[in-house]
Amino acid sequence: MESISFPEGFVWGAATAAFQVEGASKEDGRSPSIWDTFCALPGAVAGGDNGDVAVDHYHRVEQDVAMMADLGLGAYRFSTAWPRIRPDGGEPNQAGLDFYSRLVDTLLERGIDPWVTLYHWDLPQALEDAGGWANRDTAHRFADYAATVVEALGDRVSNWTTLNEPWCSAFLGYAGGIHAPGRQEPAAAVAAVHHLLLGHGLATAAIRSAKPEAKVGITLNMYPIIPADPSSEADLDAVRRLDGLQNRIFLDPLFKGEYPADIVADLAPYGFADHIKPEDLAIISAPLDQLGVNYYTEHFVSSEPAAPSEPKPGRRATGSPWVGAEHVSFPVRDDATRTDMEWEVRPRGIYQLLTRLHEEYPRLPIYITENGAAYRDAVSDDGSVNDPERLAYIDSHLRAAHDAITEGVDLRGYFAWSLMDNFEWAEGYAKRFGIVHVDYGTQVRTPKMSAMWYSEVARGNALPAPSATAAP
């Protein structure tokens, strides 16, 4: 195969999230977030890890931005920390705003476009104590926070994302208890779905009020759902349920102004419809400028319940995030290669997802805001970090995404997840997604082989012809 060029102006970037990289958890007026509290729960996070230091990005901004510039990145997607900007959900904190202002200025000085995500899961603990995302008032507090950030940064930031992966916030956080705040309350989870979307709509209005020319979007983690047995009605119903809970419950209200009727019916026992007020869907479905897509794998599902499993040693028991579909299981396919997260490597799924969005929903610019893989990396004796599996993963997914572009999908950019190894949520520091290796003891950064390859891709706006290190 020959090299593959991307459209002129295609954005090449990398992404992080505040709690995963910043550290400085008790500095400059920052208040505790739900993740600070969750990390303190016995067995909640692998190794008992926390984000107190993370990769110390808060104190190493200049170094990290210089590294991005050296790699030729055109954009950096980062999140602002709600507890740093409006501690406890209250009045603005100038020290927190000043940090992000310095970050934005440093990026711009290096020719890197800042892409701001307003919420990447770090709800102030004080707001969780008042009910969290299960409480409608949190959506309004989110809009207040969004207005504060846009007022401070909107003169220099053009691209805004309201929420990152609301599926995870609602279902992993409030139903499965796998992520913060660690609740296992299905009714709270479905309330959180609606209030997160309402918060998105209210924040969108706040951004546009402060900066009418801003480009506003939301980032969803979406997956093709594949039946274990396409001839089984039960498996097909499992696909319907999971596609509804993972994809359509967010896409339909955002782009069609309504929730999918079948999922509203499925969630009736949990009082989902009770949270929806007449004006809400008009707020949620306000037109967007772009859509962020996070893609990692497919879901291969069966209606046959999985055998009960015990928590990993030292970890707390968690529940199912699939409200109303707790019986669904995820069989292992023998033909799959897997990442260190045990996720199947299915690059064709990104093509299927992008073309589905193109065919079934209003057509607007799409950005892949996260895509990447965890593997067990180590620094070699010569100081290099060779990660051919990650390189092959990114290469294969970019080729599949390019196939979608040839089908007419308006894909305008790609952000590798993640810029650096970091605190990987409930997995702590055990899983490495970064294209840059971080020694957590010394905080030394070492670009991996995948970073050097990605740098060439970004500078050339093209994928090179496959070699021994890049799988087709």
TrEMBL record:
GO terms for cellular component: cytosol. InterPro entries: GH, GH_1_N_CS, Glyco_hydro_1, Glyco_hydro_1_AS, Glyco_hydro_1_beta-glucosidase. The keyword Hydrolase applies. It is an enzyme of class 3 (hydrolase). Keywords: Carbohydrate metabolism, Cellulose degradation, Glycosidase, Hydrolase, Polysaccharide degradation. It holds the Pfam family Glyco_hydro_1. It catalyses: Hydrolysis of terminal, non-reducing beta-D-glucosyl residues with release of beta-D-glucose. Belongs to the glycosyl hydrolase 1 family. This is Beta-glucosidase.
